[in-house]
């Protein structure tokens, strides 16, 4: 049995090893993420979080709707982190959840301003892009391609940017 395990590990490329060193699962184990993503998209549509008009209302300070959604998400996230730390909750795979402290720098402010500007101009945040496309707003494909291009540009010039 040991030789089978060794052979399997030797045949894998480093790209197939998960960050935690666990072995990859079959493709159909990832269907749970697809289902959660679809449900998440439906919630976004029903809550009007993907609405260009709601996003524009937020940036014009004309409506509390989006601020309420974002504020609720922050509160739920804070409570979740508190509970994870308090009760030492583990991941679905049984691994401990580790929170790393982050150092603040000016690049985060610049990046946040660029992110907000792009969000205000396009009416699309990276989270609901796929839900917007799924509702038939195919023009958002341009925004998706731009987001991918922006990610590539960041990766290309990362070492020269203020971090």
TrEMBL record:
Keywords: Membrane, Transmembrane, Transmembrane helix. Pfam families: Sulf_transp (PF04143). InterPro entries: Sulf_transp_TsuA/YedE (IPR007272). The chain crosses the membrane at residues 33-53, 65-84, 109-131, 137-155. This is Transporter. It comes from Paraflavitalea soli. The lineage of its organism: Bacteria, Pseudomonadati, Bacteroidota, Chitinophagia, Chitinophagales.
């Amino acid at each position: 049995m040991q030789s089978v395990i060794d052979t399997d590990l030797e045949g894998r490329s480093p790209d197939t090893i998960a960050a935690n060193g666990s072995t990859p699962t079959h493709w159909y184990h990832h269907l749970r993420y697809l289902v959660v993503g679809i449900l998440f998209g439906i919630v976004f549509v029903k809550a009007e979080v993907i609405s260009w008009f709601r996003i524009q209302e937020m940036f014009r300070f004309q409506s509390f709707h989006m601020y309420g959604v974002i504020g609720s998400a922050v509160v739920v996230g804070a409570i979740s982190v508190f509970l994870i730390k308090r009760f030492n909750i583990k991941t679905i795979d049984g691994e401990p959840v580790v929170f790393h402290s982050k150092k603040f720098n000016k690049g985060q402010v610049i990046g946040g301003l660029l992110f907000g500007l792009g969000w205000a101009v396009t009416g699309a945040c990276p989270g609901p892009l796929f839900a917007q496309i799924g509702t038939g707003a195919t023009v958002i494909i341009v925004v998706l391609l731009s987001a991918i291009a922006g990610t590539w540009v960041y990766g290309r010039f990362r070492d020269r940017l203020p971090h």
